[in-house]
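name: query_chain
kind: protein
chains: 1
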Amino acid sequence: MKHKLLLMLALALGLGASAQESAVRVALLKYNGGGDWYANPTSLPNLVEFCNSSLKTNLHPDPATVEVGSPDIFNYPFVHMTGHGNVFFSPDEARNLRDYLLAGGFLHIDDNYGMDPFVRREMKKVFPELDFVELPFSHPIYKQKFSFGSGLPKIHEHDGKPPQGFGLVHQGRLVCFYSYECDLGDGWEDPRVHNDPVEIHQKALQMGANIIGYVFAH
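structure:
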Protein backbone atom coordinates (compact mmCIF):
# COMPACT_ATOMS: atom_id res chain seq x y z
CA MET A 1 0.00 0.00 0.00
CA LYS A 2 2.82 2.42 0.81
CA HIS A 3 4.38 1.98 -2.62
CA LYS A 4 1.00 2.58 -4.23
CA LEU A 5 0.55 5.88 -2.41
CA LEU A 6 4.07 7.01 -3.28
CA LEU A 7 3.46 6.19 -6.92
CA MET A 8 0.26 8.22 -6.87
CA LEU A 9 2.09 11.21 -5.42
CA ALA A 10 4.57 11.02 -8.28
CA LEU A 11 1.73 10.77 -10.78
CA ALA A 12 0.02 13.80 -9.30
CA LEU A 13 3.16 15.77 -10.10
CA GLY A 14 3.03 14.45 -13.64
CA LEU A 15 6.17 12.34 -13.38
CA GLY A 16 6.50 9.56 -15.94
CA ALA A 17 2.97 9.48 -17.31
CA SER A 18 0.68 11.26 -19.71
CA ALA A 19 -1.65 13.94 -18.35
CA GLN A 20 -4.65 11.62 -18.50
CA GLU A 21 -2.84 8.73 -16.84
CA SER A 22 -1.41 10.89 -14.09
CA ALA A 23 -4.65 12.54 -12.96
CA VAL A 24 -4.88 11.62 -9.28
CA ARG A 25 -7.88 12.28 -7.08
CA VAL A 26 -7.89 13.82 -3.67
CA ALA A 27 -10.81 12.88 -1.44
CA LEU A 28 -13.26 14.20 1.12
CA LEU A 29 -13.59 12.06 4.23
CA LYS A 30 -17.09 10.78 5.10
CA TYR A 31 -17.42 9.95 8.80
CA ASN A 32 -20.13 8.92 11.24
CA GLY A 33 -21.40 10.73 14.31
CA GLY A 34 -23.81 13.19 12.75
CA GLY A 35 -21.36 15.94 11.83
CA ASP A 36 -21.74 17.56 8.42
CA TRP A 37 -18.77 15.97 6.69
CA TYR A 38 -20.23 17.23 3.39
CA ALA A 39 -19.88 20.93 4.27
CA ASN A 40 -18.30 23.32 1.77
CA PRO A 41 -19.08 21.42 -1.45
CA THR A 42 -17.16 23.83 -3.71
CA SER A 43 -14.03 23.84 -1.54
CA LEU A 44 -12.00 20.91 -2.82
CA PRO A 45 -12.84 21.42 -6.51
CA ASN A 46 -11.70 25.04 -6.23
CA LEU A 47 -8.51 24.03 -4.41
CA VAL A 48 -7.73 21.39 -7.04
CA GLU A 49 -8.22 23.92 -9.83
CA PHE A 50 -5.95 26.40 -8.04
CA CYS A 51 -3.23 23.78 -7.43
CA ASN A 52 -3.30 22.60 -11.03
CA SER A 53 -2.89 26.20 -12.14
CA SER A 54 -0.38 27.51 -9.60
CA LEU A 55 1.60 24.38 -8.72
CA LYS A 56 1.25 22.59 -12.08
CA THR A 57 -0.05 19.50 -10.34
CA ASN A 58 -2.21 17.11 -12.32
CA LEU A 59 -5.08 16.43 -9.96
CA HIS A 60 -8.43 15.15 -11.15
CA PRO A 61 -10.94 18.02 -11.20
CA ASP A 62 -13.59 15.97 -9.37
CA PRO A 63 -12.54 15.02 -5.82
CA ALA A 64 -13.82 11.70 -4.51
CA THR A 65 -15.69 10.92 -1.30
CA VAL A 66 -14.32 8.10 0.84
CA GLU A 67 -15.50 6.55 4.09
CA VAL A 68 -13.10 6.27 7.02
CA GLY A 69 -13.26 2.48 7.13
CA SER A 70 -13.13 1.85 3.39
CA PRO A 71 -10.11 0.20 1.76
CA ASP A 72 -10.61 2.72 -1.04
CA ILE A 73 -8.95 5.34 1.15
CA PHE A 74 -5.62 3.92 -0.03
CA ASN A 75 -6.44 5.22 -3.51
CA TYR A 76 -6.08 8.84 -2.37
CA PRO A 77 -2.77 10.35 -1.26
CA PHE A 78 -4.53 13.36 0.29
CA VAL A 79 -7.78 13.23 2.28
CA HIS A 80 -9.60 16.31 3.57
CA MET A 81 -11.94 16.29 6.55
CA THR A 82 -14.26 19.09 7.64
CA GLY A 83 -17.55 19.81 9.38
CA HIS A 84 -19.14 21.56 12.35
CA GLY A 85 -20.15 18.84 14.77
CA ASN A 86 -19.72 15.35 16.12
CA VAL A 87 -17.23 12.86 14.70
CA PHE A 88 -17.13 9.17 15.57
CA PHE A 89 -14.69 6.46 14.46
CA SER A 90 -15.36 2.80 15.22
CA PRO A 91 -12.35 0.67 16.21
CA ASP A 92 -12.15 -0.74 12.68
CA GLU A 93 -12.36 2.73 11.14
CA ALA A 94 -9.66 4.08 13.44
CA ARG A 95 -7.42 1.13 12.55
CA ASN A 96 -8.01 1.64 8.84
CA LEU A 97 -7.23 5.35 9.06
CA ARG A 98 -4.06 4.61 11.03
CA ASP A 99 -2.93 2.05 8.45
CA TYR A 100 -3.58 4.57 5.67
CA LEU A 101 -1.55 7.29 7.36
CA LEU A 102 1.32 4.94 8.21
CA ALA A 103 1.34 3.76 4.59
CA GLY A 104 2.09 7.28 3.34
CA GLY A 105 -1.34 8.88 3.22
CA PHE A 106 -2.07 12.34 4.58
CA LEU A 107 -5.09 13.76 6.41
CA HIS A 108 -5.95 17.45 6.52
CA ILE A 109 -8.58 18.29 9.12
CA ASP A 110 -10.18 21.72 8.84
CA ASP A 111 -12.38 22.72 11.75
CA ASN A 112 -15.36 24.46 10.18
CA TYR A 113 -16.30 25.49 13.74
CA GLY A 114 -17.36 23.12 16.50
CA MET A 115 -15.31 20.03 15.59
CA ASP A 116 -12.39 20.49 17.96
CA PRO A 117 -13.37 18.30 20.94
CA PHE A 118 -14.54 15.51 18.65
CA VAL A 119 -11.49 15.63 16.39
CA ARG A 120 -9.13 15.40 19.34
CA ARG A 121 -11.09 12.54 20.91
CA GLU A 122 -11.35 10.48 17.73
CA MET A 123 -7.78 11.00 16.53
CA LYS A 124 -6.65 9.62 19.89
CA LYS A 125 -8.25 6.36 18.77
CA VAL A 126 -6.12 6.48 15.63
CA PHE A 127 -2.85 7.44 17.34
CA PRO A 128 -3.20 6.90 21.11
CA GLU A 129 0.53 7.45 21.48
CA LEU A 130 0.52 10.89 19.81
CA ASP A 131 -0.75 14.33 20.77
CA PHE A 132 -1.45 17.24 18.46
CA VAL A 133 1.43 19.71 18.59
CA GLU A 134 1.26 23.26 17.32
CA LEU A 135 3.59 23.66 14.36
CA PRO A 136 5.99 26.61 14.52
CA PHE A 137 5.66 29.34 11.92
CA SER A 138 9.02 28.19 10.56
CA HIS A 139 7.57 24.81 9.58
CA PRO A 140 7.95 24.01 5.85
CA ILE A 141 4.19 23.72 5.40
CA TYR A 142 4.06 27.52 5.70
CA LYS A 143 6.96 28.01 3.31
CA GLN A 144 6.08 26.19 0.12
CA LYS A 145 5.32 28.23 -3.01
CA PHE A 146 3.52 30.78 -0.85
CA SER A 147 5.04 32.16 2.32
CA PHE A 148 2.98 32.53 5.49
CA GLY A 149 5.43 33.94 8.01
CA SER A 150 2.78 34.21 10.71
CA GLY A 151 1.27 30.79 10.16
CA LEU A 152 -2.28 30.16 9.03
CA PRO A 153 -4.29 33.06 7.63
CA LYS A 154 -7.45 34.04 9.47
CA ILE A 155 -10.34 33.44 7.09
CA HIS A 156 -13.40 33.73 9.37
CA GLU A 157 -13.56 35.09 12.89
CA HIS A 158 -15.90 32.80 14.86
CA ASP A 159 -14.60 33.22 18.44
CA GLY A 160 -11.94 35.74 17.51
CA LYS A 161 -9.14 33.39 18.50
CA PRO A 162 -5.90 33.31 16.50
CA PRO A 163 -5.67 30.55 13.89
CA GLN A 164 -3.51 27.60 14.85
CA GLY A 165 -1.99 24.78 12.84
CA PHE A 166 -1.56 21.52 14.73
CA GLY A 167 0.07 18.33 13.57
CA LEU A 168 0.37 14.66 14.38
CA VAL A 169 3.98 13.63 13.79
CA HIS A 170 4.82 9.94 13.56
CA GLN A 171 8.52 9.03 13.53
CA GLY A 172 9.43 12.45 12.20
CA ARG A 173 6.75 12.53 9.50
CA LEU A 174 3.75 14.85 9.59
CA VAL A 175 0.81 12.55 8.90
CA CYS A 176 -2.04 14.89 9.83
CA PHE A 177 -2.39 18.67 9.70
CA TYR A 178 -5.22 20.23 11.67
CA SER A 179 -6.21 23.82 10.91
CA TYR A 180 -8.10 25.34 13.84
CA GLU A 181 -9.87 28.72 14.19
CA CYS A 182 -8.97 29.39 10.58
CA ASP A 183 -11.73 28.06 8.31
CA LEU A 184 -9.59 27.38 5.25
CA GLY A 185 -12.35 25.32 3.65
CA ASP A 186 -14.80 28.22 3.81
CA GLY A 187 -12.17 30.35 2.13
CA TRP A 188 -11.74 27.82 -0.67
CA GLU A 189 -15.43 27.94 -1.49
CA ASP A 190 -16.85 30.10 -4.26
CA PRO A 191 -16.47 33.66 -2.90
CA ARG A 192 -20.19 34.37 -3.23
CA VAL A 193 -20.99 31.61 -0.70
CA HIS A 194 -19.58 33.57 2.24
CA ASN A 195 -19.07 36.94 0.53
CA ASP A 196 -15.35 36.69 1.15
CA PRO A 197 -13.16 39.43 -0.29
CA VAL A 198 -10.92 38.35 -3.17
CA GLU A 199 -7.77 38.69 -1.07
CA ILE A 200 -9.16 36.40 1.66
CA HIS A 201 -10.20 33.81 -0.93
CA GLN A 202 -6.71 33.94 -2.45
CA LYS A 203 -4.96 33.58 0.91
CA ALA A 204 -7.05 30.54 1.72
CA LEU A 205 -6.30 28.92 -1.64
CA GLN A 206 -2.60 29.71 -1.33
CA MET A 207 -2.39 28.10 2.10
CA GLY A 208 -4.30 25.10 0.78
CA ALA A 209 -1.85 24.85 -2.09
CA ASN A 210 0.99 24.93 0.42
CA ILE A 211 -0.55 21.93 2.19
CA ILE A 212 -0.89 20.03 -1.08
CA GLY A 213 2.63 21.02 -2.12
CA TYR A 214 4.04 19.90 1.21
CA VAL A 215 2.30 16.54 0.97
CA PHE A 216 3.64 15.89 -2.51
CA ALA A 217 7.15 16.94 -1.51
CA HIS A 218 7.29 14.84 1.65
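note: Residues 2-217 form a domain with the Rossmann fold fold (CATH 3.40.50.12140).
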